Amino acid sequence: KSPQLYMLIAVIVVITAACGVQQQQPSMLGIYGYDAGGISRMLSVQTAVLALGKIGQGILYGRLGVRRGGCFMLVLFAAAFWILAVPALAWPGLMVMALGLGIYTTLLPLVTRQVFGTREYAAIWGILATCGSVGTIVANPIWGSICDLTGSYTIAMLVFPVLLLLAAWALNQLLKDMR
Prior knowledge:
Helix 1 (3-19) runs antiparallel to helix 5 (103-116). By secondary structure, the protein is mainly α. The two termini are 22 Å apart. It is 87% helix and 0% strand.
């Protein structure tokens, strides 16, 4: 029950809400004009990039530290949304987004350990992981409703990156005094 816990909860909810876009990608790519085979290939390659990207994130956090590396990854994730908002840039947008989608399982546990230490880690991460589910539960109806109302995901693709940049700022503040 600390300000750091509440700030990290907010960061996690925003990140997992943004990750909800992955579940909307088949629909979005269909709107962009891709057929089922093309969508399947794109999402398969995205999954491979996601897996390799997690290894890259480990290297990045080891070299730059959790604070700088994490903020970089959140800015990159935000940029992926803006890239993916342009139908002609779907392929590169999906690949950049794949790098950001790994944040939940790579960055956030490291931040939790760095802020709260190892003694209380299991209990605190259990709470935080549950909050991540809230982000996903809330976001998918929002993503879908935006598409239903406007006929596209463009508004969401332009708004969610702003929330991710706010999450990067919050993460920076959270880890500012940490070593």
